[in-house]
Amino acid sequence: MGSSRRLTDQERRQIVRERAKGVSVSAISAALKVSPKTVYNVLGRGRSAVSANDSRTRVLTLRVTDRDLRGFDAALARRGIAHRSDAMRRLMLAADDLLRPDEGMTHELKGMSAALNRVGNNVNQVARRLNEAKLKGERLPYTPASHSEIRDLAVLVFDMADQIQEMFRARRRELDLEVTKALAGLAQQEAEQEAEQEAEQVAEHGAE
């Protein structure tokens, strides 16, 4: 039986590389003189911390609240994903698509902002005329035409509010598609890896 000695970083990378090439866990454990359990532990952590080509050398530390973590785990669970690190790496790689500004939405919002400013100016003018008349003791210059104008302005504001909500819903759908694309196949990959590990563990126990 293999020892429980501490593996070096080079040996951990070797385990990941050899396993990626299809070398069995028993052969790897025998070559490094460690237990199969040690190899499984390295593989479980190595998929997220060490790559077969030695390219994943940076470790990121992130502090979050329990609520944040539960929310993230729940979001992953809804997609059938169990490993946070793999999901976070996929999302990081897709950051260019996920974080790219929506130029179309930006243009539309600028136009609506200008329109809202015009609406605000019109409302202010009506309010100013009413206030001036009140201060002078004159009859309020609020005619049916004024009422119609205010109503038209209100309709315009509500229409723009509906348009903004629809733009944000469309953006949300677009981002959901990008996230789905980034995480595509990860749940199935995890399931296959777990099934493979279970099969190898059964084979190891049978050999003993």
Mind explaining what this structure looks like?
The chain contains nine helices and no strands. The chain has 208 residues and is mainly alpha-helical. The protein has a domain of 86 residues. The longest helix has 40 residues. The mean pLDDT is 81.
Please summarize what this structure is:
The protein is mainly α and 208 residues long. It has helices at 9-20, 25-32, 36-49, 66-78, 84-93, 95-98, 103-136, 144-183, 186-207.
List the helices and strands and how they pair.
Layout: H1 9-20, H2 25-32, H3 36-49, H4 66-78, H5 84-93, H6 95-98, H7 103-136, H8 144-183, H9 186-207
Secondary structure category: mainly alpha
Number of strands: 0
Major beta sheet, specifics?
A: none
The percentage of residues in β strands lies in under 5%
How widely separated are the two ends?
10 Å
The helical percent reads over 70%
Spans of at least 5 consecutive residues whose pLDDT stays below 50 are none
Tell me the series of helices and strands, N- to C-terminal: HHHHHHHHH
> How many distinct helices?
9
**Rg on CA atoms, Å:** 31 Å
Mean pLDDT: 81
Question: Which overall shape is indicated by the principal axes computed on the Cα atoms?
Answer: rod-shaped
Properties at a glance:
208 residues; mainly alpha; rod-shaped
